[in-house]
């Protein structure tokens, strides 16, 4: 009898586990069906947090407008044990007032605004300890979502110490608690929680850095919204809007791509007309230096070194500049890289956010009134060629996958000859740990690119000058990246690798 009872208990346990597993798979499937294009990795992280048998503290961060809040709220279908959000540019009193409104919405009867953050988190704990607290149906977990936390941490408030005490004195011992903290001010999240040396040190159980959509995900997004664009147009849209879901979601399918740019960005009543300034003002308390630095960096397409940046921006080369550069890099607006040929002179900083680059090129001086009129002009083609290089830089993982080197460590940079005459310039080098350097040519043309005899000789000359000046102890592979592919002919034999749109759009 005892063996039979044990067998029944075991069967019940296995059945429950199977049902739970099916529920988690259903969660991921539903998230996909609800329009969360891509984000498979992020959906899996959220599902694993629910499956976990321990308390989970998940940090979600990334560029403003990248879809962090949308992802979390849609995944859980708004079924939280508690949800609140910080308010931009408000003092402690109003932040606590907003927190109190959320407490009352979820059943707290106190009504009085907390006098400080310690009281606010004490009342949150009491709310979560109630028997009737809302729980996620498949796991039974209590899910707490604190959105835009950096805005809650106002000057001279006790927010961080109270939040620290809430998690370390109680939350970290609750096996059925999933705490999600989100913020667009990525630098605050990194400095105050992820890299914290105090109470949050080693307390984070999972982190999620939400990246902009890739070209392939943009294609999925447009299709899911009933917008059919050929890949040329998707690339052009990426050059302007980047892979930012919020911007793409404003796209009007009744209008052409050019009409969308005019109505959203160039029209003074457009939703994104003032987005550039709002972007920085919402992230940094004093954004003037951030904007000055990024505008200086953007003037040099392939990046600028720190000493030159300090001289041209007017910001002294000290801790202030270090902080600004770090925060811009953490928020994904710029990248910092070393150049094989000039390491002794320090790192380079380069703007890699397509929307920011577009804004600095066309909006700051209000140069263009109509994108429809600008298209097909010589200036348009020059801009498009430069912008395509940034698209490629944002798809290095797809390029490396196409080359079969996804697992190989590499550095990516541009190079310019020091010769005053007879020199050369290479837009992108992929300097690999497996003793190969890919010299990449990137071309955006309306049809297949054709290498003629003159261009073939230019490519060979570039390679020759690079080897002569740099003396690399690695093999050199000429690689061609094209928005519309490369036409095979007798001059194309110098190219060892061709990467076309099907590779750039790989998921």
List keywords for this structure.
22 helices; 47% helix; elongated; five-stranded parallel beta sheet; Arc Repressor Mutant, subunit A; 13 strands; five-stranded mixed beta sheet; single chain; 507 residues; alpha/beta; Trna Endonuclease, Chain: A, domain 1; Rossmann fold; 3 domains
The CATH topology of the largest domain corresponds to Rossmann fold
The number of helical segments is 22
Rg? 26 Å
Distance between the termini: 55 Å
Beta-strand share of residues: 5-15%
In CATH, what is the class of the largest domain? Alpha Beta
Structural category: alpha/beta
CATH architecture of the largest domain: 3-Layer(aba) Sandwich
Number of strands: 13
Please tell me about this protein's structure.
The protein contains 22 helices and 13 strands. The protein has 507 residues and is α/β, with parallel strands linked by helices. The protein starts with a helix and ends with a helix. 37% of the residues are buried.
What's the short story on this structure?
Helices cover 47% and strands 14% of the residues.
SSE arrangement:
Elements: H1 2-33, H2 40-51, E1 56-61, H3 68-75, E2 82-85, H4 92-105, H5 117-128, E3 142-147, H6 149-152, H7 159-169, E4 177-183, H8 186-194, E5 206-209, H9 215-224, H10 231-241, H11 245-249, H12 257-266, H13 275-283, H14 288-298, E6 304-305, H15 306-313, H16 319-330, E7 334-337, E8 348-351, H17 354-362, H18 371-374, H19 378-393, H20 396-403, E9 410-416, E10 425-432, E11 436-443, H21 453-470, E12 475-482, E13 497-499, H22 501-504
Parallel strand pairs: 1-4, 1-5, 2-3, 3-4, 11-12, 12-13
Antiparallel strand pairs: 6-8, 7-8, 9-10, 10-11
């Amino acid at each position: 009898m005892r063996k039979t009872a044990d067998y029944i208990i075991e069967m019940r346990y296995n059945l429950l586990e199977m049902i739970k597993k099916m529920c988690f798979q259903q969660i991921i499937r539903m998230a996909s069906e609800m329009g969360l294009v891509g984000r498979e990795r992020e959906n899996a992280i959220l599902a694993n947090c629910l499956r976990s048998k321990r308390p989970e503290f998940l940090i979600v961060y990334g560029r403003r407008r990248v879809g962090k809040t949308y992802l979390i709220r849609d995944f859980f279908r708004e079924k939280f044990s508690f949800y609140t959000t910080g308010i931009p540019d408000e003092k402690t009193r109003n932040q606590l007032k907003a927190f109190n409104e959320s407490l009352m919405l979820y059943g707290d009867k106190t009504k009085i605004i907390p006098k400080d953050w310690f009281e606010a988190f004490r009342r949150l704990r009491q709310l979560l300890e109630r028997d009737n607290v809302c729980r996620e149906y498949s796991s039974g977990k209590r899910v707490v979502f604190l959105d835009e936390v950096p805005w809650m941490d106002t000057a001279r408030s006790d927010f961080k110490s109270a939040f620290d005490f809430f998690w370390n004195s109680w939350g970290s011992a609750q096996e059925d608690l999933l705490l999600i903290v989100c913020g667009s001010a990525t630098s605050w999240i990194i400095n105050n929680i992820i890299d914290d040396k105090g109470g949050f040190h080693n307390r984070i159980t999972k982190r999620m850095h939400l990246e902009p959509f890739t070209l392939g995900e943009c294609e999925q997004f447009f299709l899911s919204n009933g917008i059919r664009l050929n890949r040329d147009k998707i690339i052009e849209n990426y050059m302007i809007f980047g892979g930012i879901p919020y911007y793409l979601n404003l796209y009007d399918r009744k209008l052409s791509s050019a009409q969308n740019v005019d109505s959203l960005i160039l029209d003074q009543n457009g939703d994104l007309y003032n987005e550039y300034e709002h972007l920085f003002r919402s992230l940094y308390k004093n954004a003037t230096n951030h904007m000055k630095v990024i505008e200086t960096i953007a003037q040099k397409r392939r990046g600028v070194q720190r000493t030159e940046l300090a001289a041209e921006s007017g910001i002294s080369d000290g801790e202030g500049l270090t902080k600004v550069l770090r925060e811009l890099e953490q928020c994904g607006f710029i990248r910092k890289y070393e150049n094989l040929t000039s390491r002794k002179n320090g790192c380079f900083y380069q703007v890699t956010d397509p929307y920011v680059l577009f804004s600095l090129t066309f909006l700051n001086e209000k140069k263009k009134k109509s994108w429809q009129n600008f298209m097909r002009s010589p200036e348009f083609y020059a801009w498009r060629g430069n912008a395509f290089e940034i698209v490629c830089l944002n798809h290095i993982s797809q390029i490396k996958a196409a080359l079969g080197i996804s697992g190989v460590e590499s550095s990516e940079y541009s190079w310019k000859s020091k010769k005053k005459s007879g020199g050369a310039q290479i837009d992108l080098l992929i300097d690999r740990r497996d003793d190969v350097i890919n010299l990449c040519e990137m071309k955006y043309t309306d049809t297949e690119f054709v290498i003629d005899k003159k261009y073939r000789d230019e490519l060979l000359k570039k390679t020759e000058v690079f080897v002569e000046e740099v003396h690399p102890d690695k093999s050199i592979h000429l690689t061609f990246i094209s928005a519309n592919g490369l036409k095979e002919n007798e001059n194309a034999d110098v190219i060892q690798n061709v990467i076309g749109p099907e590779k750039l759009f790989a998921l």
